Known about the structure:
The protein is mainly alpha-helical. The protein has helices spanning about 1-15, 25-30, 55; strands at about 45, 50-55. A hairpin with a 5-residue loop joins strand 1 and strand 2.
Amino acid sequence: MRAAAILTLLMLASLMLAQPHDAADRNSKEQPLPKIAPAPEFTLTSQDGTPVSLADLRGKVLDGACFG
């Protein structure tokens, strides 16, 4: 019983450490992400009707809640 438990643990450990065969190939074939340019100037209307421009948002930390 103890030998079976040890064998099972060894098998699980080896499976956790093993990588899929194509993982290295897949990573080498992927194209690098394009460089992102700065956002162009824009003006939107907020939900209370006031205009909001990119200049109004510069330097501020925003989360998705302010757009919901």
